[in-house]
Amino acid sequence: EMPLSELKGKYRKVSSIDKVSKGWQDEYDVSSKQCMHGSKCKVGSYCTVGRRLQEFNILGGLILPVWGTIEKALAKQVVYQNHKRIRVVRLVTTNDNQRIVGLFIPNAAVESVLTGLQWVQDIND
């Protein structure tokens, strides 16, 4: 708990609802695109800590033949240690309540995974 004297020293009452509303709206808008660390975040646009909206990359379909390729692509990542292991995930889409099972691919690893899977596209051509 914070003593009343400290509370009064650190904060002040805002009388205008418009000022408060604008501040909250600005924070709401920024939180959809930026992490809670702000513009000086070491991870940059890949960081999703505290974001209001999250984007996930899920690789689905016939995965076993390309499992090793995905493992190698994830192992190259240096952003987070826990992004180096394969994570199987299940999610429910918001639009049509469809369940999807696949591999979670971190934003920082998408390009590496796509590059690693280029041989699959070459086989199909």
C-alpha-based Rg, rounded: 21 Å
- Strand content bin: 5-15%
End-to-end Cα distance, whole Å, is 66 Å
Shape: elongated
Number of helices: 5
Trace the largest sheet across and list its strands. Answer: 1-3-2
Helix content: 25-40%
What is the total number of structural domains?
1
What structural class should be given to the helix and strand makeup?
A: alpha+beta
* Element order: H for helix, E for strand: HHEHEEHH
Mean pLDDT: 84
Q: How many DSSP E strands?
A: 3
Uncertain residue segments? none
- What does the main sheet amount to? 3 strands, antiparallel
InterPro entries: SBNO_a/b_dom, SNO
GO cellular component, one term: nucleus
Protein name: SBNO alpha/beta domain-containing protein
Domain SBNO alpha/beta: 3-52
Protein model, in words:
The chain is α+β, with helices and mostly antiparallel strands and 125 residues long. It has one domain (4-124). The chain is built from five helices and three strands. It has helices at residues 4-10, 17-30, 67-75, 110-116, 118-124; strands at residues 57-59, 87-92, 99-105. The chain has a three-stranded antiparallel sheet, with no helix packed on it. The termini are far apart. The model has no long low-confidence stretch (mean pLDDT 84).
Describe the secondary-structure layout:
Layout: H1 4-10, H2 17-30, E1 57-59, H3 67-75, E2 87-92, E3 99-105, H4 110-116, H5 118-124
Antiparallel strand pairs: 1-3, 2-3
Helix pairs in contact: 3-4
GO biological process, one term: regulation of DNA-templated transcription
Protein name: SBNO alpha/beta domain-containing protein
GO molecular function, one term: histone binding
